[in-house]
Amino acid sequence: MLLEIVKHTIMITVFVMVMMLIIEYLTVQTKGKWSLPLRKNSWLQILFAGIMGLIPGCLGTFMIVSLYSHRILNFAALVTVMIATSGDEAFVMFSMIPEKALIIMGIVFIIAIIVGFVLNIFFKDKNLMLSTNNHYKIHKHEENCICYEPKGIIPQLRNISFQRAILIISSVIIISLLITGDIGASHEYKSLSKTESITNEHNHSHDDNSEHKHSNKFGWERITFLIVSFISLLIIITVPDHFLHHHLWEHIVLKHFLKIFLWTFGAFFFIHILNDYMNVNEWIQSNVIYILILAVIIGLIPESGPHIVFISLFISGAIPFSVLLANSIVQDGHGSIPLLAESQKSFIVMKAINLIVGLLVGLIGVYFRF
User: Fold this and answer.
1) Range of 128's domain?
2) Residue 251's Cα: distance from chain center in Å?
3) How far apart are CA 251 and CA 30, in angstroms?
4) Taking the CB of residue 213, how many other CB atoms lie within 10 A of it?
5) In Å, how far are 77, 111, 227, 244 from 166, measured between CA atoms?
6) How far apart are CA 308 and CA 350, in angstroms?
7) CA separation (Å) from 326 to 98, 206, 295?
8) What is the DSSP string of 10-42?
């Protein structure tokens, strides 16, 4: 299990770093012009974030967190994507309850957009990250701050620097692991429930040692990882030494890699220990309000896995649709873990808002019995 935690940590950390690299490249290359439509239109930010949240898995969420870290998107957009996303649980819902999954994603998307528009009134053009965490650097006045110089590519590779060599080797290793399926090839879920069968109709057992593996050797998510990894490798090979050293190495790798890796590993390790010593089913009471409160509290966990129990309970008829909906609103898979590493204040405020929204929607659902 420790090996699996390391694999998941590497996969998430690498994707976040690659997204930061690509954003940094686009920002410097265009002097920030590519992001002007988003930066100038806060309503467009919210709509864009909501659409990214609909993407199953955490890729869209990671992208929005990176854009937020670069102060391209505001806090309202950040909350929007976190409400709209269901993380890796979307794969489980689409495989087990596809019709209900579409309904949930549609409802959650609408709620996310509404909440985003409301928050935009109070958080328009605002970002809760500390000024010291601002990643948005353009360097307009630096003549050497360019991203692509064809004449210098071959000489740079002949006299390759230590930093470029490390980044190229690391990229090749990551791409090789993605191709072989050692990372990014499956979605594994460990149920928190010790109860065995959930429903004969679906023929799924849920016990303490059961895992749900949705493996597709070249599924769209791994293909996406491969594409962005190849793009990042191309950038690393072709950018001038100035850009590579000052933007990619000093600004991204040295400042962010270790922090994001440790936060991600620590979160996964803590959740794994929690799963081993906690039986969520023992908490479930006959009163649906208690179950609803439990659902939104579990939703605060920044991980894909613990929330699978509510999908299982819904399939078995143990909980109503409103409880699963509330959990889907609050939880965001591991899409928020990079945010936890970058800005703890943003993470806490975002989670508090999501909890309030999820609890309110859940209570309305319980009241109207749906």
Assistant:
1) 2-367
2) 21
3) 18
4) 9
5) 35, 44, 20, 12
6) 22
7) 18, 22, 7
8) HHHHHHHHHHHHHHHHHHHHTTTGGGHHHHH-H
CA–CA dist 246, 249 (Å, integer): 6
Side-chain half-sphere of 346: how many Cα atoms within 13 Å?
Answer: 28
Q: How far is CA 175 from CA 15, 180, 224, 280, 362, in A?
A: 11, 9, 11, 38, 42
10-66 residue pLDDT tens: 877 787 788 778 877 776 776 656 566 777 788 899 999 999 898 877 777 888 888
* Model pTM score: 0.62
Look at the chain and count its residues. 370
CA pair distance 61, 54, nearest whole angstrom: 9
Strand partners of residue 197: 205
pLDDT in tens, 315-369: 777 788 999 999 999 988 778 888 887 788 889 999 999 999 999 999 999 888 8
User: What is the spatial distance between Cα 165 and Cα 79, in angstroms, rounded to a whole number?
Assistant: 38
Domain count, the chain: 1
pLDDT digits (tens, 9 = 90+) for 81-124: 999 998 777 877 876 788 898 999 999 999 999 999 999 888 76
What is the rounded CA–CA span in Å between residue 116 and residue 81?
9
